[in-house]
């Protein structure tokens, strides 16, 4: 299996330090972000592309366009700007997350948003990685819903799924769609006291033997079903971000996962 590293793993590292760490871990693929840390808002795409090329790094995606399924306000403008940035920096895809504030979004609105986003992505040669969020307050929790909407929008050649092991578990999903999956996010939750419905991004750590999200079984199922793409680490917990040696922690998690397969 192949691993990728999301900049959220070590958000205190500069872009160049992050790329250097990724190579030291034996990886060549990364995801950059527009939040933690805000690479998109602080570095020009030309700088990012040059740094990636110098390090021999491939940028899989930019995280994330939010909320992609509410196509109003400044979202169209932000979508174009992010797509322009992705194309200029050499990224292959944009991660697209649905509204997550307890509001409902009609299925037809999801379809219309995907239709509107499709030409923006297509003209720039980008893939849209649609990521259902499993939180109880999410407006799109299930991967099957995302696939149905993509088909209704005629977006089969534009969109792929982001399978996130955390959100898969929170949504109580049991279906895997390897042929639709463009990338997989992996993270663990090892706090034994937190109820599943109360799990938040802040609880997401690196995958280890105490993981409650069944990452290993999910990874095995995806591989057995034919998924051959990368598995990208995406921990949001401050305890991971504050580690004195994030590289060593990632190396340990990589070794644990490989040892379980």
Automatic annotation (TrEMBL):
Domain Xylose isomerase-like TIM barrel: 20-258
The keyword Cell wall biogenesis/degradation appears for this protein: no
InterPro entries xrefs: IolE/XylAMocC-like (IPR050312), UCP036778_sugar_epimerase (IPR014621), Xyl_isomerase-like_sf (IPR036237), Xyl_isomerase-like_TIM-brl (IPR013022)
UniProt keyword annotations, A-Z: Isomerase
Record flagged with keyword Isomerase: yes
UniProt-recorded Gene Ontology molecular function terms: isomerase activity
Protein name: Xylose isomerase
